[in-house]
Amino acid sequence: MPISSPRTALVTGASSGIGLELAKRFAADHFDLVLVARNRARLMDIGADFQKTYGIEVRIAPKDLSHSKAPQELFDELTEAGVKIHTLVNNAGFGGYGEFATSDLQHELEMMQLNVVSLTYLTKLFLPQIIAAKGGVLNVASTAAFQPGPLMAVYFATKAYVLSFSEALAEELASRGVKVSVLCPGPVPTGFQERADLHGSPMLKSPAVLDAATVAGIGYEGLKSGKRVVIAGTLNKIAVQMLRLSPRNIVTKVARKIQEKKTS
Question: Which of 55, 76, 122, 242 is 20 to 30 A (C-alpha) from 200?
Answer without folding.
Answer: 242
